[in-house]
Amino acid sequence: MFPLHSKGVEQELNFSSSPGMRRCRGLNLRALRWSQAMIFFINEINRNPDLLPNITLGYRLYDTCWLVALSMRTALSVVSQPIKRSQTGACLAPTVPLIIGDSGSTLSITISRLLNLFKIPMVSYFASCACLSDKKQFPYFFRTVPSDSFQASAVARLIKHLGWSWVGMLGTDDDYGYTATGMCTAELTRLGVCVAFHIIIPKVPSVQQIQGIVKTIQDSTARVLVCFATEEEIEPVMEEVVRQNVTGRQWVASEAWITSTLMSTTYPSLVGTIGFAISRATIPGLQKFLHNLRPLAEPYNPSAREFWETQFSCSFNKSKPVGSMADAVHYNRTCTGEERIEDTETAYNDVSQLRVTYNVHKAVYAAAQALHNLFMCQRDESTTDKTTMTQKSFEDMTLRFVKVGHFDSSLPADQQLLLHQDIMWHDGSKEVPVSVCTASCAPGYRKATRKGEPLCCHDCVPCAEGTFSSSIDQSECTLCPEDLWSSPQRDSCVDKHIEFLSYTEGFGMALAAMAILGIVATMTVASIFLRHRDTPLVRANNSELSFLLLLSLTLCFLCALTFLGQPTRWACPLRRTAFGLTFALCLSCLLSKTLVVLMAFKATLPGNNMARWFRPPQQRLGVFLCSALQCVICITWLTTAPPYPVKNTWLYRDRIVLECHMGSVALFSCVLGYIGCLAVFCFILAFLARKLPDNFNEAKFITFSMLIFCAVWITFIPAYVSSPGKFTVAVEIFAILASGFGVLLCIFVPKCYIIIFIPEKNTKKYLMSQSVGR
């Protein structure tokens, strides 16, 4: 059973008369070669004395025209032969014990189900549908062509190997097309390849259907087209592709048309087409046998006439078609009958790609060998085959089929597909064409799927800050480690910027300058007081406490400098303890000076001898005890839970802030609380002493200084909490400097002004006169 014609002629069925013989059109020279090759093989077997000795094989050739109806009629004609009986009366087997065919999967499925009822074996040379491997449904079906399951897997693996992720799929409207495209699509999906469209090519397509198919191909962004079809069914699509000049497409052909000489010579635009072909072979003597078919030149034989006119593109009679030639083509040249087949190059006598022909050879010889073994009571062993990968190319306008690799399913998975690198593609270059829905996402981007579209269609979204992608087509960006940050290109992680209040930056330099200014100002005041230490103004305000207070202010300004620079395991404890001790000493001195003022005033009252309990030794002891208590708290803090440097990675995502952790928050609160208590107590006493006589008016200045001190540190708390990063340290330094300058300016500047600019007031007489005036 061979499809000697490509199509059938539509018949009008009126149900009033019996339909005539089904007519066909479009002589298929390739299938004609298969049928003649079968005759050649049978003749070889009959001449072989070692194969089926004393038995002659016969045959009947049927033209199925790719029609299910004709294939079924052929099968019925085989099984409905008259039953013969032996001499003993037993029923004999039919004359035809085996069928070679059919070429199409749908045809084979249809007639195989019928032949199963009569247990007649069928060997197909071209039916590759994977469904035919089901031995429960088709126990008597055999074939010499690989199943489509291997081809579908091989095509999918090839597409994945070449980096194509966006392909179009075409298949015929039969079991072969549906099964092959379905299996290939499933395998492509498993491998992460998307199918842009799925087109079914009708058996008898209209012009509008063909144009619609080509429009879909042209409008799609898929540049790789996979087609499971026969040459007869893909031919009208290719005609329209050429007519509309659709170029820039890479075709991946199935085994049914990858080596079709008719397609390749008719449509040179298919150069570069790649696909898996059936294994081929060289058959000695076949070409000569095909050339010697001289009886076909008989012009009065309709079949011979049709072949002759098709083979040589000439006509015997321009007036009337005969026989099955319902749509015979009339040629301008007249046939003479003397033409020679060997002088032409057509699909009939082309023996360079004997692939399906080789399958026919295997089918015929498998049947003969089975019969031989049956007679000899032997069993044959099955053989396996491998599929080669073939490409079409043109050199000097000469068609060539080139083997560029192979797929062997019997090998390990990583060795099954072998592809050569030197391949010429559709555009004539050797660079693999690109077929993707969207370009690959470069490092630094991630794939974001588009709603309602396949996974292969995506947008490239830049990685967010703190994340990166180091390779192409990453679905998600990777989060950088805690101490790293994404690079500007988002393709790697780099060290985060380390941030702390440094001497080298402008803000740090300004704070350092203010601290140094405070130190210089304090030392200037101290030098003025030292130079005028014997004057009544200096002596009247307890010069010893004044110098001790100036020392504590100098230490406070120096303490501010320790807050600048990188926090270390030594700098952090020094900052906190220096702050606590210097301010405790400063406030202790102020408290003593306030008490001195009060005691001095009380001593002027009759019968009051409290002043003798608050002389300089007692004053020094009071300062020492107040400072010692703070020292005890600091020592406890340093020995139990001292401050330490930490990397603050939670405040900012893109940088690390180096800061000092308190260690023990409770002990730090004790240090601040003690300083606050001293300041409040000092402020209360100074406020009570603010209306004493003018010569003892230092209490007013202490009141103002404590007012500034408390205001600074009260506003410090919300500013400290709300300031981020290194600005927290800046707020702390500013509070230290502001409170230090407040004490320095309120207490010592007025006295320095009198000492320098109004020396006449710096006399005992003036001070006493102020007292008497009061």
TrEMBL record:
It is found in: Cell membrane. The keyword Glycoprotein applies. The keyword Lyase does not apply. InterPro entries: ANF_lig-bd_rcpt (IPR001828), GPCR_3 (IPR000337), GPCR_3_9-Cys_dom (IPR011500), GPCR_3_9-Cys_sf (IPR038550), GPCR_3_C (IPR017978), GPCR_3_Ca_sens_rcpt-rel (IPR000068), GPCR_3_CS (IPR017979), GPCR_3_vmron_rcpt_2 (IPR004073). One of its GO terms (cellular component) is plasma membrane. The chain crosses the membrane at residues 507-530, 545-565, 577-601, 621-644, 664-689, 701-721, 733-758. GO terms for molecular function: G protein-coupled receptor activity. Keywords: Cell membrane, G-protein coupled receptor, Glycoprotein, Membrane, Receptor, Signal, Transducer, Transmembrane, Transmembrane helix. It comes from the Eukaryota. Gene3D superfamilies: 3.40.50.2300, GPCR, family 3, nine cysteines domain (2.10.50.30). It is a multi-pass membrane protein. Residues 507-771 form the G-protein coupled receptors family 3 profile domain. Coiled coil: none annotated. SUPFAM superfamilies: Periplasmic binding protein-like I. PANTHER family: C-FAMILY ODORANT RECEPTOR OLFCD2-RELATED, CALCIUM-SENSING RECEPTOR-RELATED. Belongs to the G-protein coupled receptor 3 family. This is Olfactory receptor C family, w1. It comes from Electrophorus electricus.
